[in-house]
User: Which sequence fits this backbone?
């Protein structure tokens, strides 16, 4: 099926990234997490091979591709058991926003480093009291002469400890209406008044989660990305790739789990034949594979629409892809663990940790319920309940 819709270049990219991922694999990532460090070796080699910046413009050191290519990179690394979560954040969200809306100076300052792995950027939107409602964001920016003063809090921000800066979503006051509108600011990690503290997570991941506090952080005028009046347009330029890449993350994880279950089901013999010969084992795994492939098709559609410049069409498809991939991933991991029985909960087979990880795809960066709200209102034209 894949050969019918993917170019030879995309197929070659899949094969090459898959080979890289398999050289590291789940054992590598598990060891990195146990040591409490970042998967620097994999990140750097992926950068050297051009995979980190495959979506960024060639004139700034990127590969000249789009989210379609970057989603392939993340999916194949995930299918090998070694996904890089910061691919969702640094090149996909931040790199895309700066590419589309940044000044020439911002592009030259950040994009080459994001592409070659020498710079990393985190993304800060989630707040303690705002949830999925971006209109309730309270982080505000006000002018002070030529500078900006940024004040607020952010939570569940990935990779801040390794990032050179954070792309912060704040709000500024519209001089005409007095209403607050979203704006994006590049905040250096060492900016005065910018502090972070780790969030104690039961989720075991290489990328830690952080709470950020911005206490009158003074930023120069050129810290603002794009136009002050562009508002939601710039924000969703980053959120649509985020949803597509989250789908890629989930699909890769689901594929890894199913592959482990298939290896086990082919070899494990309890009576006279391998357990994979029994339909009670075979059919659920076949269903998991079908669900992942269907989600993958929607993800590819979303990526193609986004790269073609259809932001509205991509928004709908990206939300659908993220929803479908999250559901498919949870079911795939659950069935894989169930196939192995007690072995599915041992460290030897490395599936148990995915039970928690798979849930992330359902709740982040936006919950499945909010996606259903989006489809209900935007696609089906039903009235809002809120």
Assistant:
């Amino acid at each position: 099926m894949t050969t019918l819709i993917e170019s030879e270049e995309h197929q070659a990219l899949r094969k090459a990234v898959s080979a890289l991922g398999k050289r590291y694999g789940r054992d590598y990532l598990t060891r990195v997490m146990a040591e409490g460090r970042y998967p620097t070796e994999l990140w750097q080699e992926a950068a050297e091979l051009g995979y980190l910046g495959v979506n960024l413009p060639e004139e700034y050191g990127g590969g000249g591709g789009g989210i379609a290519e970057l989603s392939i990179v993340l999916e194949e690394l995930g299918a090998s058991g070694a996904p890089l979560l910061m691919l969702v954040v640094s090149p996909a969200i931040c790199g895309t926003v700066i590419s589309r809306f940044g000044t020439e100076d911002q592009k030259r300052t950040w994009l080459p480093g994001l592409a070659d792995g020498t710079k990393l950027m985190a993304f800060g939107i989630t707040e303690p009291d705002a949830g999925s409602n971006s209109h309730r964001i309270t982080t505000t920016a006000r002018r002070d002469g030529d500078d900006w003063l940024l004040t607020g809090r952010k939570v569940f921000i990935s990779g801040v400890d390794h990032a050179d800066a954070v792309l912060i979503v704040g709000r500024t006051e519209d001089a005409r209406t007095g209403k607050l509108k979203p704006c994006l600011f590049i905040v250096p990690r060492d900016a005065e008044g910018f502090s972070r503290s780790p969030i104690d997570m039961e989720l075991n991941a290489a990328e830690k989660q952080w709470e950020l506090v911005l206490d009158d952080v003074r930023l120069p005028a050129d810290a603002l990305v794009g136009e002050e009046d562009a508002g939601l347009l710039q924000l969703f330029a980053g959120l649509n790739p985020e949803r597509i890449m989250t789908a890629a993350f989930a699909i890769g994880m689901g594929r890894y789990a199913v592959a482990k279950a298939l290896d086990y089901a082919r070899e494990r013999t309890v009576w006279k034949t391998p357990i994979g010969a029994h339909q009670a084992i075979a059919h659920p795994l076949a269903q998991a594979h079908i669900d992942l492939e269907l989600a993958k098709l929607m993800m590819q559609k979303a990526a193609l629409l986004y790269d073609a410049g259809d932001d509205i069409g991509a928004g709908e498809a990206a939300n659908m892809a993220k929803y479908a991939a999250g559901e498919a991933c949870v079911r795939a991991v659950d069935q894989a663990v169930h196939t192995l029985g007690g072995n599915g909960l041992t460290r030897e087979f490395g599936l148990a940790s995915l039970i928690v990880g798979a849930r992330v795809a359902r709740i982040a960066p936006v919950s499945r319920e909010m996606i259903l709200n989006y489809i209900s209102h935007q696609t089906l034209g039903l009235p809002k309940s809120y």
In short: The chain has a mean pLDDT of 93. The longest strand covers residues 147-158.
